[in-house]
Amino acid sequence: MNVSRYDMWHDTIRLGLVRIFYPCLMIFGTIGNILCLKILLRKRFRRQSTCQYLCILAVIDILFIYTRSVRYLYRYMFQMDLRNTSLWMCRSFIFFSSTLSHLASWILVIVSFDRYFIMKNRFSYRNAGQRVMITTCFLILIISCINAHYFAILGITMKLRTSNHQKSRNLSNDTQNFINRFVCMARTESKHFFRFYQPIIDLLLVAIIPFFLLIFANIGIIRTTVRTNILRKTSRRQKRNNRLTIMLLSVILSFILLTCPSVIYICVNRLQSSLRFSDTKLVVLDLFEALWYTKHTLNFLLYTLSGQDFRREFRKLILCSKRNASKTLRHRRHRQQKGGESIFSANSYVSTHRTSSITIQLHQTQTKTTVLWTN
């Protein structure tokens, strides 16, 4: 009885993640990141390179959430792993999933160093869009080349044995059939690399190296901010830059607290020699993955809590949308009133035309009668 309750506890948590958590994650993550895009692309923010990088991060977060969550939802609905459907799906899914996880970490590294060099007056505010575009394209190219090996090492076809037992009067025949099934696993010659070296590469590129680079860059950002606030009288522009720096630091802090522990735990467990895990360990792995994915939905909340200018622009966006909605309602009412007036004028024209024609006919009949009487 205790064993069944123990198993039900694991199943309840995993089903709760699939039925409730991942759909909510997709909904709130999509809405939050789209709002981040709409606000950061407004006139107040879009000229700054930091906000342009944060817009790219919002797009990456949306793609990351959908890529990671769809696999669990597909497995729950169809009782099958999405990666095992075809060779193209296997390689493409793992390539894009790994590329997006690397991009999400390294965009934060680039935006931190960009902010540091701007505060040190190494980068100018002019041509920020060109600099962001070149840096982002170069980063995507490098990470895509690092993950391109997935198209060569993944995808095997396994023969699965099925037995059919047939009985006759005196003999029993066992016939064995083999079914070819595609499995999204590393090929035989690449199993050792995929099992032991790939988790180390992911650990270094997603968590360890970005962690130390972010610590180094943000210590420099904090020191430079404190020094400029002490040496100079804080102007309006300096206060605005400080608020933008606090927004960036909040995102990086969430990366350090949520992404790094989750990725380290997942990659270390992938390095273990045992192929099968206990139910408890599988639940813990699922919870750490959920924690990792949660970070990609929190940026809107973090910007709202830490950025005064972001809150102000968010209020303006809401007021602007309300204004536009009221304008459209007014325009519709005005058009309906115009339509009603035109119908009324048309009806009045028809009625006046009828009355005039009736009066003309009456006048003609009166003239005829008078002529007859005179005759």
Which helices and strands appear, and what pairs or packs with what?
Blueprint: H1 2-40, H2 49-78, H3 87-119, H4 128-146, H5 150-153, E1 154-167, E2 172-186, H6 191-231, H7 236-270, H8 279-294, H9 299-306, H10 308-374
Helix pairs in contact: 1-2, 1-8, 1-9, 1-10, 2-3, 3-4, 3-6, 3-7, 6-7, 7-8, 7-9, 9-10
Describe the structure.
The chain is mainly alpha-helical. The protein is 78% helix and 8% strand. It has helices spanning 2-40, 49-78, 87-119, 128-146, 150-153, 191-231, 236-270, 279-294, 299-306, 308-374, and strands at 154-167, 172-186. Strands 1-2 form a two-stranded antiparallel sheet. The chain is globular, with a radius of gyration of 34 Å. The protein starts with a helix and ends with a helix. The model is unreliable at 165-172 and 371-375 (pLDDT under 50).
Tally of individual helices: 10
Largest sheet: 2 strands, antiparallel
Number of strands: 2
Tell me, briefly, the overall form.
globular
Determine the mean pLDDT: 80
The percent range for helix content is over 70%
Along the chain, the helix and strand elements come as: HHHHHEEHHHHH
* Assembly of the depicted chains: single chain
Q: Cα distance, first to last residue?
A: 122 Å
State Rg. 34 Å
Give the low-confidence spans.
165-172, 371-375
Strand order of the largest sheet: 1-2
What does this entry show, briefly?
The chain has 375 residues and is mainly alpha-helical. 78% of the residues lie in helices and 8% in strands.
